[in-house]
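Fig. S4 source data, part A: sequence.
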Amino acid sequence: SSCRLFDAIVSHCVPVIVSDRIELPFEDEIDYQEFSLFFSVNEAVWPGYLMQKLETFPKEKWLKMWNKLKQVAHHFEYQYPAKKDDAVNMLWRQIHRKLPAVNLAIHRTKRLKIPDWWKRR
């Protein structure tokens, strides 16, 4: 869950993300590959694969990821009052960028007789 992801990041733990398809918070601004490890579900359920990869992960690469993680961790921290680029501001920016697409979908659905016309092609 994103709660565990936030906890890992603010605790400066390099996240290990197991998913075939995931929408990560603030991904349009933050490149998670710089500080996270990704595995597919198939890789994760393959006996021993995940542990072998984690145990043999190069220390230099891990340190580089960890340093990058420390640079972006403030984006995942909730502050009161909110501070520039903290989690609250990042969430509002993300909502602001997604809102036009949501409005477009709502307006198209209202005017079209076949609401999902763009999916049928």
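Fig. S4 source data, part B ends here. The CA atoms of residues 75 and 90 lie 7 Å apart.
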